[in-house]
Amino acid sequence: MYQLTDDFMTDQQTATVEPSNDNLASLESKLINGSEKEQLQLIAQLIDLGEPGWEILMTFLPSSGLTPNAVTGKVYQSLYQIKQTKAQEFLQNNFPDGIIPLKSELNIDYRPLSHLLIEQKFQAADTLTRRKLCELAGKDAIQRKWVYFTEVEQFPPTDLQTINSLWRVYSEGKFGFSVQRKIWLSLGQDFVKLWPKIGWKQANNWTQYPNEFIWDLSAPVGHLPLLNQLRGVRVAASLFSHPVWSEEKS
């Protein structure tokens, strides 16, 4: 009886099947026309296909509209993470600082925050976000390392929108001040209900920083970025009442 060799079996098991043109066209159509949930699930599948899948994602990114969202953020992150020359050249040529315009009325550099969130280094990004909020508040806040609620009211809308967009877009829509605010509004603006909902309080005990917080996408929606809730709700209330959110679509 003919017996397969180990080498032959290994080759057969590891061989990749090139997707057909029809299959690629179908996947591309689903990426363009699917729901957000379907689109997010499809991105990993396209990455796993290798270069044909990457080509679809690279075509989708610049043609998907001017407003960055959870899907375009995930596409960018996925291409960034594969560390393949063609994909890296595409990103560098078209989106050298990511897909979020890093605008600031105070000339604050948001590139380090952008890079941390693109790489989903959420704990480091959270720390840097607090520093950036202090920069927005001014020298006194930088020295004390936290902000007053009256300082929050004066934050430039452009900067607050930049920080929020970075968090929201590079977290698949799970994190960001606007996400927290939306939950707060749905709870009747009740902070007592908000804290456990977003995982900042458990069984009437404050979640301990940093070990009890969750620094990845398995966290509850709205879990990040953190505010110092131990100082009361006035900072959060000022942030959630900031006029910038009337300009936000989500």
From TrEMBL:
* One annotated GO molecular function: tetrapyrrole binding
Q: Where is the GUN4-like domain?
A: 104-243
Q: Which Pfam families match?
A: GUN4 (PF05419), GUN4_N (PF16416)
Supply the CDD domains for this chain: GUN4
InterPro entries per record: ARM-type_fold, GUN4-like, GUN4-like_sf, GUN4_N
In this chain the GUN4 N-terminal ARM-like repeat domain maps to: 20-96
One annotated Gene Ontology cellular component of this protein:
outer membrane-bounded periplasmic space
What PANTHER family does the entry give? TETRAPYRROLE-BINDING PROTEIN, CHLOROPLASTIC (PTHR34800)
Listed name of the protein: GUN4 domain protein
